[in-house]
Amino acid sequence: MKLKLDLHPLYNRGGEIDKALRGIIDEAIRKKATEVEIIPGKGSGQLKKKVLRFLEQKEIKALYHRIDKDAKNHGRLFVYFRYK
């Protein structure tokens, strides 16, 4: 199962971005999704940096397996989950 989060509508609302990111991570774990696609968009790259900082937090990092940046579209990130 794959989930998708488009951050375009939230680009200038810091608290809501964190809430949306946490929500999609929690949903992925609840539904045992193997992949979450996060779309911060291309823009200046500030939103993507914010997303990466969020994902690098110790307590968040423990919840997922790895992150990939889309080689063909720098406005997308993929977060992969592994379940035992």
From TrEMBL:
Top-level taxonomic group: Bacteria
Listed SUPFAM superfamilies: SMR domain-like
Domain Smr: 5-82
Pfam families: Smr
Protein name: Smr domain-containing protein
